[in-house]
């Protein structure tokens, strides 16, 4: 009994001792846990708070609204519209293929779209939203919105899309927007460019005014849960996106549309060509049009191969901006330049007559006047009025190409204007140096003769012709063209011509349209019911030869233009300004293969010039909506 | 020889007759503390489920209440009955574990549950108090001189290894280790000699090494490896630990406030209603809340130890201390895991984590503790 009790006692003591040991150990572990809590929640609390915030918040980039492009009266030529689209943020989408399948159940995705999406996902950091589909209709968009809870990482946006409402007539000027390419991203560090839903200007004003139009990105702080679903937004006015500024053009949208209508033909679609209307005082372009046009909206929404082929294969090359990039022989419209050079040189008396027998012989080569039977005796004024080539062949030999080229440049030819639409060309004002540099051969007198009637090497664009005409009309300053309102312009230089010489040229240009026998007398403005009573126009026709005329053809009779295939017909060119006594607008028009300058180009110029004047309040009558002038 | 089964012994003996006076004798301090911890659980589950009462908090409250009743019921039962039932309960547990082996439900790749139609439960949870009962009885019956003897050790080892093996096969590494640790603690408390402890330590080190090499499934190894080097898989296995530490650390001293935990709202910490519920306490109530919880647990454990000291019988002492050890180990493993000190093993925070079987098992355990204390004057049979 006592041994048992002892054992029991012994046992109990032992258990108590060991309980104390275990208890102490347990206390130690509690101490460690408490110390760990202290470490986490006091010593490292700041770090973990930051991590927690990082967990909790994402910063979504806010895209700025692109500025609009407007005409001089504020009419939107490029504007933004609601674009319902679906994007995916890959880092928040655990199963991308499955998620796309689910999207496709509601809004079918083509294999091509899928490939593009997967490629985009691969090529971009995982936090960047990838466009799944845009320009969705409201029904599909709302159906997808209902299913968003099944689509982790998929976000629906009512974003901004670009629209060009004016039916394509501004396509060449405005250009279009598109996704930034690798080169854009390399040259521009703005992180906006890396956003696959962001669009930048690719051509035209959209590209040249990119800085103004773009605006600046903002940030939206959003609270997200572990699955990436946005729990709540934390808008902060300081981090809002800054919308781009509007760009205002000097163009007049109605006038531009009116001009485009003038290019329509009865049976051959729109004529191909370009026209510029310029304010002869300020240089503001009221119209700058290249025909035919194309729909820039197609470039925004994505061009199909078929659209692309059609654009590229059209012989009238709709994408090509003929107004500033089309170089044409100015033909007889160049004769004012030769006249001014002659008068300036003092070597020619304008009253001296030259006999035109239909051709002139230089060495063993004949230079023909457009009128085979010849004009007879022509002084300088008559020569312009009748567009006598022989007269200019004759005087150009006296004054020489250098003097002609000098005047041509002062009148604005051969210059590439920085008006904010890329792709312009400088054209060609040839001289001996130019020929040596370009062709490596010496200048010949025959080159001078060809140049004197605006053929041969001379090339000009509708814009350059308009500027040339504006400078003649202005008489004082070297007007520079302007397209974007607010664009910084240097003060115009002085033209530095003797006012009497300019007056002489202008009078001759008046005779072209206003005296019987003038090449454009048929188009004399402005009919009595046009509302432009008493307003007179001065101008000059030009017929740009595109083919060599053979000897046999000359003897057997030159084939009439309308009998030739379109590609071989002459270019129809006309320059003009009005009102004659107080010039306001100048116009340069080229209609590719439009035949004689006295026809298509002159008709179009007269109509557009008349409409421009009416819209500007010149003349007494009511504004004509149709612009019919007869 | 002393008379067996003598009911009234000592001055502060237990009144056997009147139920009400017996109830009065129960240690109400422990009951209150356990209830308090349970209420902490209700509040935190409420927060963890975004304040939706029906998504756990209500069930938890019901279980705490039911568990409290069960606890009282268990406490009222005479310790001699528990002494007699020690082995039967153990064997029922073993049978149930075998049952899991054949009829168990598979949840998340582990087969731990038995579905009885009305409710499902985990036999491994039953095994936790059962092993304590069995070992306490074993050592109670074992003469002192055999405690460190080979045969004496072997008996304890067999009692321990059979359920451990069955639970490990489910597989449930956490409970297996918990069982092992509890068993070792009881063997230690029973008075095994230090020499055996030293030898066993050496042996255990070797055994664990071999076990790790051949006995663990790939995901179990991965858990241990990611615990040792969290950068192994930042989005996967160590995600739990990282997010859990962020939740605790960002709580700071005072916490973000009740229902204001952003880690919780963002659902960054998985399982925060069950195993990771301490992250909600730490995030919303900060160091203050965390230490208060630790304090509450320490109080519970302290009271239990204090109760064990008042008992005379080896069975009672070992049972109380064994059950307390299990309870304490739950806390250590869970908090160690949540704080990034231990690998992620599926061990709940007792009385606070959502989960029915655990609450019933733990509260049943406290019932046993109360019973042992209540009947501390009762003499148990002792083999001669």
TrEMBL record, chain A:
<keyword id="KW-0121">Carboxypeptidase</keyword>
<dbReference type="GO" id="GO:0008658">
    <property type="term" value="F:penicillin binding"/>
</dbReference>
<dbReference type="InterPro" id="IPR050515">
    <property type="entry name" value="Beta-lactam/transpept"/>
</dbReference>
<keyword id="KW-0472">Membrane</keyword>
<dbReference type="Pfam" id="PF00905">
    <property type="entry name" value="Transpeptidase"/>
</dbReference>
<dbReference type="Pfam" id="PF03717">
    <property type="entry name" value="PBP_dimer"/>
</dbReference>
<dbReference type="InterPro" id="IPR001460">
    <property type="entry name" value="PCN-bd_Tpept"/>
</dbReference>
<dbReference type="GO" id="GO:0009252">
    <property type="term" value="P:peptidoglycan biosynthetic process"/>
</dbReference>
<keyword id="KW-0645">Protease</keyword>
<feature type="domain" description="Penicillin-binding protein dimerisation">
    <location>
        <begin position="64"/>
        <end position="233"/>
    </location>
</feature>
<dbReference type="InterPro" id="IPR017790">
    <property type="entry name" value="Penicillin-binding_protein_2"/>
</dbReference>
<dbReference type="GO" id="GO:0071972">
    <property type="term" value="F:peptidoglycan L,D-transpeptidase activity"/>
</dbReference>
<keyword id="KW-0997">Cell inner membrane</keyword>
<dbReference type="GO" id="GO:0008360">
    <property type="term" value="P:regulation of cell shape"/>
</dbReference>
<keyword id="KW-1133">Transmembrane helix</keyword>
<keyword id="KW-1003">Cell membrane</keyword>
<dbReference type="GO" id="GO:0005886">
    <property type="term" value="C:plasma membrane"/>
</dbReference>
<dbReference type="InterPro" id="IPR036138">
    <property type="entry name" value="PBP_dimer_sf"/>
</dbReference>
<keyword id="KW-0961">Cell wall biogenesis/degradation</keyword>
<keyword id="KW-0133">Cell shape</keyword>
<protein>
    <submittedName>
        <fullName>Peptidoglycan glycosyltransferase</fullName>
    </submittedName>
</protein>
<keyword id="KW-0812">Transmembrane</keyword>
UniProtKB/TrEMBL annotation, chain B:
<dbReference type="Pfam" id="PF01098">
    <property type="entry name" value="FTSW_RODA_SPOVE"/>
</dbReference>
<feature type="transmembrane region" description="Helical">
    <location>
        <begin position="89"/>
        <end position="111"/>
    </location>
</feature>
<dbReference type="GO" id="GO:0008955">
    <property type="term" value="F:peptidoglycan glycosyltransferase activity"/>
</dbReference>
<dbReference type="GO" id="GO:0032153">
    <property type="term" value="C:cell division site"/>
</dbReference>
<dbReference type="GO" id="GO:0009252">
    <property type="term" value="P:peptidoglycan biosynthetic process"/>
</dbReference>
<keyword id="KW-0472">Membrane</keyword>
<dbReference type="GO" id="GO:0008360">
    <property type="term" value="P:regulation of cell shape"/>
</dbReference>
<dbReference type="GO" id="GO:0051301">
    <property type="term" value="P:cell division"/>
</dbReference>
<feature type="transmembrane region" description="Helical">
    <location>
        <begin position="61"/>
        <end position="83"/>
    </location>
</feature>
<dbReference type="GO" id="GO:0015648">
    <property type="term" value="F:lipid-linked peptidoglycan transporter activity"/>
</dbReference>
<feature type="transmembrane region" description="Helical">
    <location>
        <begin position="285"/>
        <end position="309"/>
    </location>
</feature>
<protein>
    <recommendedName>
        <fullName>Peptidoglycan glycosyltransferase MrdB</fullName>
        <ecNumber>2.4.99.28</ecNumber>
    </recommendedName>
</protein>
<dbReference type="GO" id="GO:0005886">
    <property type="term" value="C:plasma membrane"/>
</dbReference>
<keyword id="KW-0573">Peptidoglycan synthesis</keyword>
<keyword id="KW-0808">Transferase</keyword>
<feature type="transmembrane region" description="Helical">
    <location>
        <begin position="173"/>
        <end position="190"/>
    </location>
</feature>
<dbReference type="GO" id="GO:0071555">
    <property type="term" value="P:cell wall organization"/>
</dbReference>
<keyword id="KW-0133">Cell shape</keyword>
<comment type="pathway">
    <text>Cell wall biogenesis; peptidoglycan biosynthesis.</text>
</comment>
<dbReference type="InterPro" id="IPR011923">
    <property type="entry name" value="RodA/MrdB"/>
</dbReference>
<keyword id="KW-1003">Cell membrane</keyword>
<feature type="transmembrane region" description="Helical">
    <location>
        <begin position="147"/>
        <end position="167"/>
    </location>
</feature>
């Amino acid at each position: 009994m006592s041994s048992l009790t002892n054992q029991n006692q012994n046992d109990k003591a032992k258990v108590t001792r060991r309980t104390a040991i275990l208890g102490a150990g347990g206390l130690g572990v509690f101490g460690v846990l408490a110390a760990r809590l202290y470490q986490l929640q006091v010593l490292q609390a700041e770090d973990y708070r930051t991590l927690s915030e990082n967990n909790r918040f994402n910063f979504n980039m806010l895209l700025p609204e692109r500025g609009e492009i407007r005409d001089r009266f504020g009419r939107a030529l490029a504007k933004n519209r609601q674009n319902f689209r679906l994007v995916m943020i890959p880092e928040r989408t655990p199963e991308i293929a499955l998620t796309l399948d689910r999207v496709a159940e509601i809004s079918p995705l083509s294999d091509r779209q899928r490939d593009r999406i997967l490629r985009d996902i691969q090529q971009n950091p995982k936090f960047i939203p990838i466009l799944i589909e845009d320009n969705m209709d409201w029904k599909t968009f709302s159906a997808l919105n209902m299913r968003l809870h099944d689509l982790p990482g998929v976000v629906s946006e009512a974003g901004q899309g670009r629209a060009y409402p004016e039916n394509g007539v501004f396509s060449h000027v405005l250009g279009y927007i598109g996704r930034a390419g690798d080169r854009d991203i390399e040259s521009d560090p703005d992180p906006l460019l890396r956003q696959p839903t962001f669009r930048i200007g690719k051509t035209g004003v959209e590209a040249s005014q990119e800085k103004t139009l773009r605006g600046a990105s903002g940030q939206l702080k959003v609270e997200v849960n572990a699955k990436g679903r946005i729990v709540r937004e934390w808008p902060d006015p300081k981090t809002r996106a800054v919308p781009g500024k509007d760009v205002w053009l000097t163009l007049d949208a109605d006038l531009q549309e009116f001009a485009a209508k003038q290019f329509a033909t009865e049976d051959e679609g729109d004529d191909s060509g370009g026209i510029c209307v310029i304010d002869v005082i300020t240089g503001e372009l009221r119209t700058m049009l290249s025909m035919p046009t194309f729909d820039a909206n197609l470039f925004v929404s994505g061009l199909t191969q078929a659209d692309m082929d059609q654009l590229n294969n059209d012989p009238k090359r709709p994408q090509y901006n003929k107004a500033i990039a089309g170089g044409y022989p100015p033909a007889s419209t160049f004769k004012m330049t030769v006249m001014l050079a002659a008068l300036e040189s003092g070597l020619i008396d304008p009253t001296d007559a030259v006999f035109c027998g239909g051709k002139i012989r230089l060495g063993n080569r004949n230079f023909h006047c457009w009128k085979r039977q010849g004009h007879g005796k022509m002084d300088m004024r008559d020569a312009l009025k009748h567009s006598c080539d022989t007269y200019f062949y004759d005087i150009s030999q006296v004054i020489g190409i250098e003097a002609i080229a000098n005047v041509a440049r002062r009148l604005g030819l051969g210059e590439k204007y920085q008006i904010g639409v890329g792709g312009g060309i400088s054209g060609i004002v040839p001289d001996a140096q130019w020929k040596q540099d370009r062709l490596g051969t010496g200048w010949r007198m025959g080159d001078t003769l060809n140049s004197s009637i605006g053929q041969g090497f001379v090339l000009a664009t509708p814009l350059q012709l308009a500027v040339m005409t504006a400078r003649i009309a202005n008489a004082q300053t070297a007007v520079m063209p302007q397209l974007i309102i607010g664009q910084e312009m240097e003060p115009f230089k002085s033209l530095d011509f003797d006012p009497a010489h300019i007056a002489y040229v202008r009078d001759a240009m008046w005779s072209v349209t206003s005296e019987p026998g003038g090449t454009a007398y048929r188009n004399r403005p402005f009919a009595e019911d046009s509302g432009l009573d008493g307003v007179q126009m001065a101008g000059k026709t030009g017929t740009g030869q595109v083919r060599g005329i053979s000897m046999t053809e000359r003897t057997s009779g030159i084939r009439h233009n309308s009998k030739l295939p379109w590609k071989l017909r002459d270019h129809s060119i006309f320059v003009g300004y009005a009102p004659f006594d107080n010039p306001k607008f100048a116009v340069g028009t080229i209609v590719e293969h439009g035949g004689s300058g006295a026809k298509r180009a002159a008709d179009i110029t007269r109509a557009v010039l008349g409409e421009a004047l009416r819209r500007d309040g010149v003349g007494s009558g009511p504004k004509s909506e149709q612009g019919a002038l007869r | 020889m002393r008379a067996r089964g003598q009911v009234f012994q000592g001055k502060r003996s237990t009144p056997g007759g009147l139920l009400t006076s017996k109830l009065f004798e129960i240690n109400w301090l422990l009951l209150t503390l356990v209830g308090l911890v349970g209420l902490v659980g209700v509040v935190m589950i409420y927060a963890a489920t975004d304040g939706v009462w029906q998504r756990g908090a209500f069930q938890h409250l019901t279980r705490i209440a039911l568990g409290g009743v069960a606890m009282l019921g268990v406490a009222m039962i005479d310790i001699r009955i528990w002494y007699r039932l020690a082995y039967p309960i153990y064997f029922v547990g073993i049978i149930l574990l075998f049952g899991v082996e054949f009829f168990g439900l598979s949840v998340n790749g582990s087969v731990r549950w038995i579905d009885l139609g009305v409710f499902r439960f985990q036999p491994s949870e039953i095994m936790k108090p059962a092993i304590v009962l069995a070992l306490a009885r074993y050592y109670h019956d074992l003469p002192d001189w055999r405690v460190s003897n080979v045969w004496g050790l072997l008996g304890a080892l067999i009692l321990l290894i059979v359920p451990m093996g069955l639970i490990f096969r489910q597989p449930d590494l956490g409970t297996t280790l918990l069982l092992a640790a509890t068993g070792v603690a009881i063997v230690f408390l029973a008075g095994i000699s230090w020499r055996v402890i030293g030898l066993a330590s050496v042996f255990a080190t070797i055994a664990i090494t071999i076990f790790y090499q051949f006995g663990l499934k790939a995901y179990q190894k991965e858990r241990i490896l990611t615990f040792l080097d969290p950068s192994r898989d930042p989005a996967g296995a160590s995600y739990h630990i990282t997010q859990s530490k962020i939740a605790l650390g960002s709580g700071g001293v005072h916490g973000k406030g009740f229902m204001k935990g952003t880690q919780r709202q963002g659902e960054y910490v998985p399982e925060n209603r069950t195993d990771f519920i301490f992250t909600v306490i730490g995030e919303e109530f900060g160091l203050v809340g965390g230490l208060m919880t630790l304090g509450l647990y320490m109080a519970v454990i302290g009271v239990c130890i204090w109760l064990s000291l008042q008992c005379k019988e080896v069975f009672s002492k070992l049972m109380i201390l064994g059950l307390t050890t299990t309870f304490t180990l739950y806390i250590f493993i869970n908090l160690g895991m949540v704080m990034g000190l231990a690998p992620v093993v599926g061990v709940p925070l007792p009385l606070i984590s959502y989960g029915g079987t655990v609450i019933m098992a733990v509260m049943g355990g406290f019932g046993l503790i109360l019973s042992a204390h209540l009947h501390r004057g009762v003499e148990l049979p002792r083999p001669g």
